[in-house]
Amino acid sequence: xxxxxxxxxxxxxxxxxxxxxxxxxxxxxxxxxxxxxxxxxxxxxxxxxxxxxxxxxxxxxxxxxxxxxxxxxxxxxxxxxxxxxxxxxxxxxxxxxxxxxxxxxxxxxxxxxxxxxxxxxxxxxxxxxxxxxxxxxxxxxxxxxxxxxxxxxxxxxxxxxxxxxxxxxxxxxxxxxxxxxxxxxxxxxxxxxxxxxxxxxxxxxxxxxxxxxxxxxxxxxxxxxxxxxxxxxxxxxxxxxxxxxxxxxxxxxxxxxxxxxxxxxxxxxxxxxxxxxxxxxxxxxxxxxxxxxxxxxxxxxxxxxxxxxxxxxxxxxxxxxxxxxxxxxxxxxxxxxxxxxxxxxxxxxxxxxxxxxxxxxxxxxxxxx
Length: 369
Hints:
There is one protein chain. The chain has 369 residues and is of the alpha/beta class. Helix content is 37%, strand content 13%. The protein has helices at 3-12, 56-65, 78-88, 100-112, 128-135, 178-187, 241-251, 261-271, 274-297, 319-328, 352-368, and strands at residues 43-44, 95-98, 119-122, 140-143, 162-166, 193-196, 217-222, 235-239, 301-302, 309-313, 331-332, 334-335, 345-348. A hairpin with a 6-residue loop joins strand 9 (301-302) and strand 10 (309-313).
């Protein structure tokens, strides 16, 4: 059993709560983060981090900014927002920079959802959507993916609920087209549609251009994956000016200085080195294709990924057994306990050497069985 899952179970058990903990959270099930072990060095293929370090410019800018840590950071993130504005082709007041994309997703639940405006999202998707709904006391509907784990866009058309879609989806890695998402947006004109594009740089098409066509669209992205800055916690949202004003109301009512100086500077450095980002993405895609082919050669089934990870299962060995055996061999992957996906493991794409080590370890496991 994963230590992170054991920890979540422990903290949600009533006997471990103080007598002061509000009863409104008594049934809250926290998000389970991927393992970040300290006891030994693993090949870490479990949390969709980049295998490559951040851009040298990102590191250089962050180090330089450390000399001004006695000062509060710019709450408007003006330099970083202006840099994003130029790259994305939107105005600066159509962008909000946040502490990871998790923060802006939570802001969206807080700003737009309530008992009269429930949320809807897939039954198998990013686990934080359900947590954000529950912690904000928002009713929500989970819409099942089809038997092939694909999101059926028709299931979301005209449902009159605030919709949250991860595209590409996690943990499946599957995407739907921009045209399909546009049909969802168009058919729900009185509700917000949030498109979470955390993995968009690995093979999907962004919906950001649609914000000038629809005033009910919010697109979120992150620096964690393609820009190698998971440890910096930097994300952003893009939408019409009115939506961004709404989200800023939440931001300035919770944490005006939500981006620290070093992260802000690192973000600017990363954006000034887009060639480095594109090169890393191309390498990850190449390693993903190699790994998919090798997995299929040794009997695994994989979904068609458009992300920096692969969702795979073996017809004769349980997902949990593979997870445990890989961990014994010093390789971490992500295993989920949900009934529909418990035979799968999510495998982050690492360096070429790391993926060769993974395939070698899996061959050994298959031979042992």
